[in-house]
Amino acid sequence: MAGISIQLNKILKKSGLTNLLAATAYSAVLSSGNWIIAVVSIFVSSTLSYKFAKTPDTTIIYQIYITYTLAISLIVSGPLQLMFTRYIADKFFKKRFDEILPNYLGAVVSVMGCSFVVSVILSFYFFKSLPCYYHLIFSCTISTLSGVWITNALLSGLKSYKYILFSFAFSYLFIGISFFFTSKLELIWTFVSFYAGQIVLLCLLMIRVILDYPSKKLFSLEFWYKRKSYYSLLLSGLFYNIGIWADKFIFWFNPVTGKPVFGNLRASVMYDIPIILAYICLIPGIAVFFLKLEVEFASSYDNYYSAVRSWGKLEDLYRLANKMIDNARTTLYDTLRVQGIGGVLIFFFEEKIFKFFNLPSIYIPLFNILLVGAILQLAFMVIFAILSYFDRRRDLAIISFIFALGNLIFTMITQLLGPYYYGYGFALSVLIAVLVGMLCLRRFLNEVHYRTFVFIS
Questions:
Q1: 87-89-93 Cα angle (round to 5)
Q2: What distance in Å separates the CA atoms of residue 113 and residue 119, rounded to the nearest whole number?
Q3: What pTM, to 2 d.p., does this model score?
Q4: CA 287, 289, 292, 295 torsion-angle sign
Q5: Side-chain half-sphere of 151: how many Cα atoms within 13 Å?
Q6: Domain boundaries, the chain
Protein backbone atom coordinates (compact mmCIF):
# COMPACT_ATOMS: atom_id res chain seq x y z
CA MET A 1 0.00 0.00 0.00
CA ALA A 2 3.03 2.26 -0.31
CA GLY A 3 1.57 4.15 -3.26
CA ILE A 4 -1.53 5.10 -1.27
CA SER A 5 0.57 6.31 1.66
CA ILE A 6 2.67 8.49 -0.65
CA GLN A 7 -0.39 10.06 -2.25
CA LEU A 8 -2.09 10.72 1.09
CA ASN A 9 1.07 12.22 2.56
CA LYS A 10 1.33 14.60 -0.39
CA ILE A 11 -2.17 15.86 0.35
CA LEU A 12 -1.66 16.09 4.12
CA LYS A 13 1.62 18.02 3.78
CA LYS A 14 -0.49 21.01 2.78
CA SER A 15 -2.10 22.41 5.89
CA GLY A 16 -5.74 23.39 6.09
CA LEU A 17 -9.15 21.87 6.57
CA THR A 18 -9.69 21.54 2.82
CA ASN A 19 -6.67 19.27 2.38
CA LEU A 20 -7.66 17.18 5.41
CA LEU A 21 -11.11 16.67 3.94
CA ALA A 22 -9.54 15.90 0.56
CA ALA A 23 -7.31 13.22 2.10
CA THR A 24 -10.29 11.73 3.94
CA ALA A 25 -12.37 11.68 0.77
CA TYR A 26 -9.48 10.07 -1.13
CA SER A 27 -9.26 7.41 1.59
CA ALA A 28 -13.00 6.79 1.37
CA VAL A 29 -12.81 6.27 -2.38
CA LEU A 30 -9.80 3.97 -2.19
CA SER A 31 -11.02 1.92 0.76
CA SER A 32 -14.66 1.48 -0.23
CA GLY A 33 -14.91 2.98 -3.70
CA ASN A 34 -15.07 -0.31 -5.58
CA TRP A 35 -17.87 -1.60 -3.37
CA ILE A 36 -19.75 1.71 -3.43
CA ILE A 37 -19.52 1.95 -7.23
CA ALA A 38 -20.84 -1.59 -7.56
CA VAL A 39 -23.74 -1.25 -5.11
CA VAL A 40 -24.84 2.20 -6.23
CA SER A 41 -24.63 1.36 -9.94
CA ILE A 42 -26.57 -1.89 -9.59
CA PHE A 43 -29.36 -0.65 -7.35
CA VAL A 44 -29.78 2.82 -8.84
CA SER A 45 -29.79 1.63 -12.45
CA SER A 46 -32.10 -1.27 -11.71
CA THR A 47 -34.48 0.93 -9.70
CA LEU A 48 -34.62 3.64 -12.36
CA SER A 49 -35.29 1.08 -15.06
CA TYR A 50 -38.04 -0.64 -13.07
CA LYS A 51 -40.78 0.64 -15.37
CA PHE A 52 -38.86 -0.48 -18.46
CA ALA A 53 -38.50 -4.10 -17.30
CA LYS A 54 -40.48 -6.73 -19.11
CA THR A 55 -42.02 -7.92 -15.82
CA PRO A 56 -42.27 -6.08 -12.47
CA ASP A 57 -40.22 -8.79 -10.74
CA THR A 58 -37.24 -8.51 -13.09
CA THR A 59 -35.52 -5.79 -11.07
CA ILE A 60 -35.91 -7.64 -7.76
CA ILE A 61 -34.73 -10.96 -9.20
CA TYR A 62 -31.73 -9.19 -10.78
CA GLN A 63 -30.70 -7.64 -7.44
CA ILE A 64 -31.08 -10.91 -5.52
CA TYR A 65 -29.18 -12.84 -8.19
CA ILE A 66 -26.24 -10.42 -7.99
CA THR A 67 -26.24 -10.60 -4.19
CA TYR A 68 -25.90 -14.40 -4.33
CA THR A 69 -23.10 -14.29 -6.89
CA LEU A 70 -21.17 -11.75 -4.81
CA ALA A 71 -21.68 -13.70 -1.57
CA ILE A 72 -20.72 -17.10 -2.96
CA SER A 73 -17.71 -15.77 -4.88
CA LEU A 74 -16.38 -14.00 -1.77
CA ILE A 75 -16.81 -17.09 0.41
CA VAL A 76 -15.14 -19.41 -2.12
CA SER A 77 -12.28 -17.06 -3.03
CA GLY A 78 -11.82 -15.58 0.45
CA PRO A 79 -9.46 -18.29 1.74
CA LEU A 80 -7.01 -17.88 -1.13
CA GLN A 81 -7.12 -14.07 -1.02
CA LEU A 82 -5.35 -13.82 2.33
CA MET A 83 -2.83 -16.59 1.66
CA PHE A 84 -1.98 -15.28 -1.80
CA THR A 85 -1.68 -11.68 -0.58
CA ARG A 86 0.83 -12.81 2.05
CA TYR A 87 2.75 -14.79 -0.55
CA ILE A 88 2.94 -11.72 -2.82
CA ALA A 89 4.05 -9.57 0.12
CA ASP A 90 7.01 -11.93 0.64
CA LYS A 91 7.91 -11.58 -3.05
CA PHE A 92 7.80 -7.80 -2.76
CA PHE A 93 10.04 -7.89 0.30
CA LYS A 94 12.57 -10.08 -1.53
CA LYS A 95 12.20 -7.94 -4.70
CA ARG A 96 11.45 -11.02 -6.81
CA PHE A 97 8.96 -9.24 -9.00
CA ASP A 98 9.37 -11.62 -11.93
CA GLU A 99 7.63 -14.36 -9.91
CA ILE A 100 4.48 -12.32 -9.29
CA LEU A 101 2.78 -12.65 -12.70
CA PRO A 102 3.09 -16.46 -13.14
CA ASN A 103 1.85 -17.12 -9.61
CA TYR A 104 -0.94 -14.58 -10.06
CA LEU A 105 -2.12 -16.42 -13.18
CA GLY A 106 -1.83 -19.70 -11.28
CA ALA A 107 -3.95 -18.26 -8.46
CA VAL A 108 -6.56 -16.94 -10.88
CA VAL A 109 -6.85 -20.29 -12.65
CA SER A 110 -7.05 -22.14 -9.32
CA VAL A 111 -9.71 -19.96 -7.75
CA MET A 112 -11.78 -19.61 -10.91
CA GLY A 113 -11.73 -23.35 -11.49
CA CYS A 114 -12.69 -24.13 -7.90
CA SER A 115 -15.43 -21.48 -7.95
CA PHE A 116 -16.86 -22.87 -11.17
CA VAL A 117 -17.09 -26.39 -9.76
CA VAL A 118 -18.70 -25.22 -6.51
CA SER A 119 -21.16 -22.93 -8.29
CA VAL A 120 -22.17 -25.65 -10.75
CA ILE A 121 -23.06 -27.90 -7.81
CA LEU A 122 -25.01 -25.10 -6.11
CA SER A 123 -26.80 -24.19 -9.33
CA PHE A 124 -28.56 -27.55 -9.35
CA TYR A 125 -30.31 -26.44 -6.17
CA PHE A 126 -30.78 -22.74 -6.85
CA PHE A 127 -32.08 -23.23 -10.40
CA LYS A 128 -33.75 -26.61 -10.05
CA SER A 129 -36.13 -27.39 -12.94
CA LEU A 130 -34.94 -24.28 -14.82
CA PRO A 131 -33.17 -24.32 -18.22
CA CYS A 132 -29.48 -25.25 -18.21
CA TYR A 133 -28.35 -21.82 -19.41
CA TYR A 134 -29.23 -20.40 -15.96
CA HIS A 135 -26.83 -22.94 -14.42
CA LEU A 136 -24.10 -22.01 -16.89
CA ILE A 137 -24.30 -18.22 -16.60
CA PHE A 138 -24.53 -18.43 -12.80
CA SER A 139 -21.41 -20.61 -12.59
CA CYS A 140 -19.44 -18.48 -15.07
CA THR A 141 -20.35 -15.27 -13.22
CA ILE A 142 -19.20 -16.59 -9.85
CA SER A 143 -16.00 -17.91 -11.40
CA THR A 144 -15.24 -14.53 -12.98
CA LEU A 145 -16.04 -12.63 -9.78
CA SER A 146 -13.63 -14.87 -7.88
CA GLY A 147 -10.93 -13.92 -10.37
CA VAL A 148 -11.76 -10.25 -9.80
CA TRP A 149 -11.38 -10.60 -6.01
CA ILE A 150 -7.99 -12.31 -6.34
CA THR A 151 -6.82 -9.62 -8.75
CA ASN A 152 -8.05 -6.95 -6.36
CA ALA A 153 -6.02 -8.56 -3.59
CA LEU A 154 -2.90 -8.33 -5.72
CA LEU A 155 -3.61 -4.73 -6.71
CA SER A 156 -2.88 -3.60 -3.15
CA GLY A 157 0.74 -3.54 -4.32
CA LEU A 158 0.10 -1.44 -7.42
CA LYS A 159 0.37 2.33 -7.62
CA SER A 160 -2.08 2.95 -10.49
CA TYR A 161 -5.07 3.50 -8.22
CA LYS A 162 -6.83 5.91 -10.54
CA TYR A 163 -6.72 3.24 -13.22
CA ILE A 164 -8.16 0.67 -10.82
CA LEU A 165 -11.05 2.93 -9.84
CA PHE A 166 -11.62 3.79 -13.48
CA SER A 167 -11.83 0.09 -14.31
CA PHE A 168 -14.50 -0.52 -11.69
CA ALA A 169 -16.43 2.63 -12.62
CA PHE A 170 -16.32 1.83 -16.33
CA SER A 171 -17.36 -1.80 -15.85
CA TYR A 172 -20.30 -1.06 -13.57
CA LEU A 173 -21.41 1.84 -15.74
CA PHE A 174 -21.45 -0.66 -18.60
CA ILE A 175 -23.51 -3.03 -16.45
CA GLY A 176 -25.96 -0.29 -15.49
CA ILE A 177 -26.50 0.91 -19.06
CA SER A 178 -26.83 -2.59 -20.44
CA PHE A 179 -29.50 -3.38 -17.86
CA PHE A 180 -31.75 -0.68 -19.33
CA PHE A 181 -31.78 -2.63 -22.57
CA THR A 182 -31.66 -6.22 -21.32
CA SER A 183 -34.46 -5.61 -18.78
CA LYS A 184 -36.88 -5.38 -21.72
CA LEU A 185 -35.83 -8.86 -22.86
CA GLU A 186 -35.92 -12.25 -21.19
CA LEU A 187 -34.59 -12.41 -17.62
CA ILE A 188 -31.53 -14.42 -18.62
CA TRP A 189 -30.20 -11.48 -20.62
CA THR A 190 -29.95 -9.32 -17.51
CA PHE A 191 -27.76 -12.04 -15.99
CA VAL A 192 -25.68 -12.12 -19.17
CA SER A 193 -25.17 -8.33 -19.06
CA PHE A 194 -23.84 -8.54 -15.50
CA TYR A 195 -21.52 -11.38 -16.48
CA ALA A 196 -20.26 -9.39 -19.48
CA GLY A 197 -19.48 -6.44 -17.22
CA GLN A 198 -17.43 -8.65 -14.89
CA ILE A 199 -15.51 -10.03 -17.87
CA VAL A 200 -14.68 -6.46 -18.90
CA LEU A 201 -13.57 -5.62 -15.36
CA LEU A 202 -11.38 -8.70 -15.00
CA CYS A 203 -9.72 -8.08 -18.37
CA LEU A 204 -8.98 -4.43 -17.51
CA LEU A 205 -7.41 -5.36 -14.19
CA MET A 206 -5.46 -8.28 -15.61
CA ILE A 207 -4.00 -6.08 -18.33
CA ARG A 208 -2.64 -3.73 -15.69
CA VAL A 209 -1.09 -6.58 -13.70
CA ILE A 210 0.55 -7.99 -16.84
CA LEU A 211 1.97 -4.59 -17.79
CA ASP A 212 3.28 -3.78 -14.30
CA TYR A 213 4.80 -7.19 -13.56
CA PRO A 214 6.26 -8.64 -16.76
CA SER A 215 7.84 -12.08 -16.54
CA LYS A 216 9.41 -14.63 -18.86
CA LYS A 217 7.47 -17.36 -17.06
CA LEU A 218 3.74 -17.52 -17.73
CA PHE A 219 2.30 -19.90 -15.16
CA SER A 220 3.29 -21.17 -11.71
CA LEU A 221 1.65 -22.83 -8.70
CA GLU A 222 4.52 -22.16 -6.32
CA PHE A 223 2.20 -20.27 -3.95
CA TRP A 224 0.59 -23.64 -3.11
CA TYR A 225 3.91 -25.08 -1.86
CA LYS A 226 3.83 -25.65 1.88
CA ARG A 227 7.17 -23.95 2.49
CA LYS A 228 6.17 -20.92 0.42
CA SER A 229 2.75 -20.11 1.88
CA TYR A 230 0.82 -20.18 5.14
CA TYR A 231 -2.22 -22.43 5.07
CA SER A 232 -3.59 -21.02 8.33
CA LEU A 233 -4.56 -17.94 6.33
CA LEU A 234 -6.88 -20.15 4.27
CA LEU A 235 -8.92 -20.77 7.41
CA SER A 236 -8.88 -17.10 8.38
CA GLY A 237 -10.19 -16.05 4.99
CA LEU A 238 -12.86 -18.76 4.98
CA PHE A 239 -14.15 -18.02 8.49
CA TYR A 240 -14.02 -14.26 7.91
CA ASN A 241 -16.30 -14.41 4.88
CA ILE A 242 -18.60 -17.01 6.40
CA GLY A 243 -18.95 -14.72 9.40
CA ILE A 244 -19.95 -11.81 7.20
CA TRP A 245 -22.63 -13.75 5.30
CA ALA A 246 -23.87 -16.29 7.87
CA ASP A 247 -26.73 -14.20 9.29
CA LYS A 248 -27.89 -13.20 5.80
CA PHE A 249 -28.20 -16.80 4.61
CA ILE A 250 -30.02 -17.80 7.79
CA PHE A 251 -32.58 -15.03 7.33
CA TRP A 252 -32.95 -15.87 3.64
CA PHE A 253 -33.62 -19.57 4.14
CA ASN A 254 -35.78 -19.42 7.25
CA PRO A 255 -39.39 -19.84 6.02
CA VAL A 256 -40.53 -17.26 8.59
CA THR A 257 -38.10 -14.46 7.60
CA GLY A 258 -37.38 -15.28 3.95
CA LYS A 259 -39.34 -15.98 0.83
CA PRO A 260 -38.51 -17.45 -2.60
CA VAL A 261 -37.79 -14.92 -5.33
CA PHE A 262 -36.66 -16.98 -8.32
CA GLY A 263 -36.12 -20.73 -8.36
CA ASN A 264 -34.63 -21.47 -4.95
CA LEU A 265 -33.04 -18.02 -4.61
CA ARG A 266 -34.54 -16.48 -1.51
CA ALA A 267 -34.50 -13.03 0.10
CA SER A 268 -35.49 -11.40 3.38
CA VAL A 269 -36.78 -7.88 2.79
CA MET A 270 -37.13 -7.20 6.51
CA TYR A 271 -33.40 -7.92 7.03
CA ASP A 272 -31.78 -7.03 3.70
CA ILE A 273 -32.82 -3.38 3.62
CA PRO A 274 -31.67 -2.48 7.17
CA ILE A 275 -28.33 -4.30 6.83
CA ILE A 276 -27.57 -2.58 3.51
CA LEU A 277 -28.27 0.84 5.05
CA ALA A 278 -26.16 -0.04 8.09
CA TYR A 279 -23.16 -0.96 5.92
CA ILE A 280 -23.51 2.19 3.82
CA CYS A 281 -23.40 4.24 7.04
CA LEU A 282 -19.87 2.88 7.71
CA ILE A 283 -18.28 4.94 4.92
CA PRO A 284 -17.02 7.79 7.21
CA GLY A 285 -15.46 5.34 9.65
CA ILE A 286 -13.87 3.27 6.89
CA ALA A 287 -12.35 6.43 5.41
CA VAL A 288 -10.79 7.47 8.74
CA PHE A 289 -9.59 3.92 9.41
CA PHE A 290 -7.90 3.75 6.01
CA LEU A 291 -6.33 7.19 6.45
CA LYS A 292 -4.95 6.46 9.91
CA LEU A 293 -3.75 2.98 9.00
CA GLU A 294 -1.96 3.87 5.76
CA VAL A 295 -0.46 7.21 6.80
CA GLU A 296 0.35 7.01 10.51
CA PHE A 297 0.43 3.36 11.55
CA ALA A 298 2.09 2.07 8.36
CA SER A 299 4.83 4.70 8.67
CA SER A 300 5.58 3.93 12.32
CA TYR A 301 5.45 0.19 11.57
CA ASP A 302 8.02 0.55 8.78
CA ASN A 303 10.28 2.74 10.96
CA TYR A 304 10.29 0.24 13.82
CA TYR A 305 10.99 -2.86 11.74
CA SER A 306 13.57 -1.03 9.64
CA ALA A 307 15.41 -0.31 12.90
CA VAL A 308 15.03 -3.96 13.90
CA ARG A 309 16.51 -5.21 10.62
CA SER A 310 19.42 -2.74 10.86
CA TRP A 311 20.04 -3.55 14.56
CA GLY A 312 19.27 -0.05 15.78
CA LYS A 313 20.06 1.27 19.24
CA LEU A 314 17.98 -0.01 22.14
CA GLU A 315 16.60 3.42 23.02
CA ASP A 316 15.57 3.95 19.41
CA LEU A 317 13.77 0.62 19.33
CA TYR A 318 11.82 1.47 22.48
CA ARG A 319 10.93 4.93 21.15
CA LEU A 320 9.82 3.62 17.74
CA ALA A 321 7.87 0.74 19.29
CA ASN A 322 6.02 3.10 21.62
CA LYS A 323 5.09 5.30 18.69
CA MET A 324 3.90 2.29 16.69
CA ILE A 325 1.77 1.10 19.62
CA ASP A 326 0.29 4.58 20.08
CA ASN A 327 -0.59 4.75 16.38
CA ALA A 328 -2.24 1.32 16.53
CA ARG A 329 -4.31 2.47 19.49
CA THR A 330 -5.29 5.80 17.93
CA THR A 331 -6.19 4.08 14.65
CA LEU A 332 -8.81 2.02 16.48
CA TYR A 333 -10.03 4.79 18.78
CA ASP A 334 -10.24 7.52 16.14
CA THR A 335 -12.08 5.20 13.76
CA LEU A 336 -14.65 4.31 16.40
CA ARG A 337 -14.90 7.92 17.58
CA VAL A 338 -15.74 9.24 14.13
CA GLN A 339 -18.09 6.36 13.34
CA GLY A 340 -19.71 6.69 16.76
CA ILE A 341 -20.46 10.37 16.15
CA GLY A 342 -21.87 9.46 12.75
CA GLY A 343 -23.98 6.73 14.32
CA VAL A 344 -25.46 9.15 16.87
CA LEU A 345 -26.38 11.60 14.11
CA ILE A 346 -28.00 8.78 12.14
CA PHE A 347 -30.06 7.78 15.19
CA PHE A 348 -31.41 11.33 15.41
CA PHE A 349 -32.35 11.54 11.73
CA GLU A 350 -33.20 7.89 11.00
CA GLU A 351 -36.94 8.55 10.64
CA LYS A 352 -36.30 11.19 8.01
CA ILE A 353 -33.81 8.91 6.26
CA PHE A 354 -36.35 6.09 6.06
CA LYS A 355 -39.03 8.50 4.90
CA PHE A 356 -36.72 9.90 2.22
CA PHE A 357 -36.06 6.41 0.84
CA ASN A 358 -39.72 5.51 1.22
CA LEU A 359 -38.93 2.64 3.58
CA PRO A 360 -41.32 1.31 6.26
CA SER A 361 -40.54 2.75 9.70
CA ILE A 362 -41.15 -0.70 11.18
CA TYR A 363 -37.59 -1.57 10.11
CA ILE A 364 -36.04 1.15 12.29
CA PRO A 365 -35.55 -0.93 15.50
CA LEU A 366 -33.82 -3.67 13.52
CA PHE A 367 -31.74 -1.06 11.69
CA ASN A 368 -30.55 0.39 15.02
CA ILE A 369 -29.16 -2.89 16.32
CA LEU A 370 -27.67 -3.75 12.92
CA LEU A 371 -25.96 -0.35 12.83
CA VAL A 372 -24.40 -1.10 16.21
CA GLY A 373 -23.30 -4.46 14.86
CA ALA A 374 -21.86 -2.85 11.73
CA ILE A 375 -19.85 -0.40 13.85
CA LEU A 376 -18.50 -3.33 15.86
CA GLN A 377 -17.64 -5.05 12.59
CA LEU A 378 -15.66 -1.94 11.63
CA ALA A 379 -13.70 -2.33 14.88
CA PHE A 380 -13.16 -5.97 13.96
CA MET A 381 -11.80 -4.87 10.56
CA VAL A 382 -9.32 -2.51 12.26
CA ILE A 383 -8.08 -5.20 14.65
CA PHE A 384 -7.90 -7.75 11.84
CA ALA A 385 -5.83 -5.36 9.70
CA ILE A 386 -3.37 -4.53 12.48
CA LEU A 387 -2.93 -8.18 13.43
CA SER A 388 -2.30 -8.89 9.75
CA TYR A 389 0.50 -6.32 9.73
CA PHE A 390 2.17 -8.18 12.60
CA ASP A 391 1.62 -11.56 10.89
CA ARG A 392 -0.43 -12.92 13.81
CA ARG A 393 -1.84 -15.77 11.75
CA ARG A 394 -3.03 -17.86 14.68
CA ASP A 395 -4.85 -14.91 16.24
CA LEU A 396 -6.49 -14.11 12.90
CA ALA A 397 -7.78 -17.67 12.59
CA ILE A 398 -9.12 -17.64 16.16
CA ILE A 399 -11.05 -14.37 15.96
CA SER A 400 -12.37 -15.22 12.48
CA PHE A 401 -13.61 -18.59 13.73
CA ILE A 402 -15.26 -16.95 16.74
CA PHE A 403 -16.98 -14.44 14.45
CA ALA A 404 -18.25 -17.12 12.05
CA LEU A 405 -19.36 -19.64 14.68
CA GLY A 406 -20.91 -16.95 16.85
CA ASN A 407 -22.87 -15.44 13.99
CA LEU A 408 -24.21 -18.87 13.01
CA ILE A 409 -25.24 -19.93 16.51
CA PHE A 410 -26.50 -16.62 17.88
CA THR A 411 -28.46 -15.76 14.74
CA MET A 412 -30.22 -19.13 14.84
CA ILE A 413 -31.02 -18.58 18.53
CA THR A 414 -32.53 -15.17 17.80
CA GLN A 415 -34.63 -16.78 15.09
CA LEU A 416 -36.13 -19.04 17.77
CA LEU A 417 -36.64 -16.17 20.24
CA GLY A 418 -38.67 -14.09 17.80
CA PRO A 419 -38.64 -10.81 15.81
CA TYR A 420 -37.77 -8.63 18.81
CA TYR A 421 -34.34 -10.28 19.00
CA TYR A 422 -33.49 -10.15 15.28
CA GLY A 423 -30.08 -8.60 14.64
CA TYR A 424 -28.73 -9.22 18.14
CA GLY A 425 -27.05 -12.44 17.05
CA PHE A 426 -24.91 -10.60 14.50
CA ALA A 427 -24.03 -7.81 16.94
CA LEU A 428 -23.18 -10.18 19.79
CA SER A 429 -20.95 -12.37 17.62
CA VAL A 430 -18.94 -9.37 16.40
CA LEU A 431 -18.68 -7.99 19.94
CA ILE A 432 -17.15 -11.22 21.26
CA ALA A 433 -14.75 -11.41 18.29
CA VAL A 434 -13.70 -7.79 18.87
CA LEU A 435 -13.04 -8.36 22.58
CA VAL A 436 -10.95 -11.48 21.89
CA GLY A 437 -9.13 -9.62 19.10
CA MET A 438 -8.31 -6.72 21.42
CA LEU A 439 -6.89 -9.15 23.98
CA CYS A 440 -4.74 -10.83 21.34
CA LEU A 441 -3.49 -7.50 20.00
CA ARG A 442 -2.79 -6.09 23.46
CA ARG A 443 -0.87 -9.21 24.49
CA PHE A 444 1.32 -9.01 21.40
CA LEU A 445 2.01 -5.27 21.69
CA ASN A 446 2.99 -5.64 25.33
CA GLU A 447 5.64 -8.18 24.26
CA VAL A 448 6.46 -6.71 20.85
CA HIS A 449 10.26 -6.62 21.40
CA TYR A 450 10.45 -10.16 22.75
CA ARG A 451 8.22 -11.62 20.01
CA THR A 452 10.01 -9.68 17.27
CA PHE A 453 13.53 -10.78 18.15
CA VAL A 454 12.58 -14.34 19.09
CA PHE A 455 10.87 -14.64 15.69
CA ILE A 456 13.96 -13.29 13.92
CA SER A 457 16.29 -15.63 15.74
A1: 120
A2: 10
A3: 0.86
A4: negative
A5: 28
A6: 2-229, 277-456
